[in-house]
Design goal:
A: about 350 residues; mainly alpha; B: 17 helices
Amino acid sequence: MGLASRILETVAQPLLALAIGLAVSALLMAIYGYDPVLAYKALFTGAYGSTYDLMETLAFAVPIMLTGITFAIGVRAGLFNIGAEGQLYMGAIGAVIAGAFLSLPWPLHVLVATLAGMLFGLLWSVGPALLKVFRGVHEVISTIMFNWIAFYLATYLVLYQLAEPGRAEKTYSVLETARYGVLVEGTSLTSVLFVAIAFNIAVNVFLTQTKMGFELRMYGLNPDAARFAGISEKKVIIVSFLIGGLAAGLAGATQVLGRPPTWALYGTLGNVVRLGFEGIGVALIGRNHPIGIIIASLFVGGLRHGGRYMEIEAGIYSELVDAVTGLIIIALAVPEVFEAIKRYRLKRRVAGG
Amino acid sequence: MRASRGAIDTRVLLGIIVVVIIVAIAAVIATREQPAPQPAPEETTPRATTPTPTATTPTPTKTPEETTPAPAKKIKIAVISDIGGRGDLSFNDMAFKGADDAARDFGVEVLELISKSEADYLPNLRAAARDPDVALIIGVGFLLTDAIYQVAQEFPDKNFAGIDTSVQDKAKQEKGEILPNVLDIKFEEHKGSALVGALACFLLTQYPEYRHVGMVLGIEIPPLWKFEIGFKWGCDWALKYYEQKFGSLPEHLQGMTTKEIVLWVYTGTFSDITKGYEAAKGMYAQGAIAVYNVAGPLGLGINQAVQEIANEKNLEMGPPFWIGVDANQDWLNPGFVIASMMKRVDKGVYYATKLVVDGKFRDFVQRNEGVLILGIGTKIDGELAEGIAMSTLEDLDEFIQFGIEAERLTGKKVLPLPPEEIKSKVEAMRNSVPQWIWDAVKELEDKIRNGEVEVPLPTSQEEVESWRQKLG
């Protein structure tokens, strides 16, 4: 494939997808009697139009660039790991426990609380990994089940064990020493952004520069060839799950340690819920590449933050805003879904023939 | 692998370029569209174009020279929901109803913002505060406490109000003083709960086959103690009243204390409707005549339990009944909801807006430590401003309208029957209860209003425990 045609494909494909997504959404808004131009103006200037809004968009991008990794590293190893949601809850719980109940000096406390979140996420990914490796339980089934167990376990812990007396709707807030600093006063963005980006870069380095990363990718591309080459299937699956768990756990921790104003986990889990699933869309848009995921998260985070201005400036009610942003995300994710299906079929043909 | 790595890197680079191009295109479109006429979205400016004369021009004899200082400037208020969002036919919808009422009466413009997750509280509050026309920002629900506390300090020129919030408690705790631009709006749910508790236990005296009243509560958080103890106290008051009026309790209740009569349970959830159903089913099986819903949507589960009994026994109306909460829920299943403990969140929004429109907001905050209490007999500057009541037949119209509005917004069927049939069924149900009972509950309401009796208001675990010792 020549460079020119590759450029054409790489640029043209997402642009076309975006154009289709915008057009379908515009049609939807027009049907409901709203002005799509006004709405898109509100959406995009709302997301990127000022320093303040850009900071908010970045704040929304932080957790999903991490949960995106959880899904992506599964796909890169040929797995369909949708356990980020549950691992994220546990990560948030870990961060609350270490952040609110330990007493440590400032930089150390942040570090410990962050690591506690990552550790809890990692531990929650061990179950599905072992079930897959030793019992052949499909990861979709096991991770969905683990997500629900995590939901009820976390809800129980928040309401009955970690709740702040008199403010039973949330856990104790983490101590000042365990909080990431707000980067620009009056915004929701904290320095935890750098941790998230560093994590993504580290995963990229792992995938491209290490032997284990190479084995993981190779196994994902062609398990038969990988086995033939002496790559341990068990090791690949377990490593993929564990890195995914670390990422999701960190995502949960960012919402407790790195986002004002509450610095705690709500009893509804409302400040972390759904972030795991949003990561799947981000991973697909980012073509399951750690750097691509960062870029995709900036885009999806922008939709998430800018969406509110469609309500304010174009008067579009919030359900329709959800539909519009959802359609755009789906349109952008479709090419990668096609690719995945193509790869899957190819693999089956190879295996079957 | 070298080739494929190169491919990925190029892709990433091109991806960046694509995003930049998109943003650039969007920016171009945005700037080009600036002068385009804004198509007024019908929903955000309802009836707001006709400000009532009472709000802006107090004197009818107004000469052109006497015009108000800034006549063109229209006040805008923003209402920000918690994650419950619209369509709950209760708490959040009532807040938006209050804003619509304020728009109608004061000519203010209304900005609605729905919070999709807890991460939206801060950006939504800030987005509203950054709008130069917005003078008052109202957060609906105690979950917004921390967010209002923060944003109110970032925007000291804007006014903030919170329904059920405790921003000023937090301010006192952390700063040692109140915030001058925040009003916490609280409600005396204990008083309303006492009224429906009395009603339930009066009903009990009329039907020999029933020996209990019930209460299904959500998660045990301090705000719910008010409902729990209030209801029990009201029941106790009713039984004593009956004894005094008729000499002794009716035969089927003789020897029973309030403690034995009131069945109550904290279900530990505000969302699991099945838990409401199970809890209520057990209570009705034990012979509860009415069950009080203190868990929001769990009322639908209680309703289901009642409906099953109704189907089984082929009943047109209760007993058994259930008792609604927050909004007037009497129309949800006409004939089976004896009454509702109404917490008029809409009035809270309305009064807060009025204070801003009249220019008295900051002054009021200063004089009242930043708290507005709405209940029975509560006042704003000497004028009666109530926010708690037991539902009456007259209230029904307003809330049927509420259901019709919800049907219009969602396109789904909300009202169980045509409005006229709902009204006639509720009226028939109410008429089946002896008039002296309604009068007695009214008497309790008056006594609460003029301070003759005081409904307990527990604020600590110890106080709750001591009341449970007395009342069950």
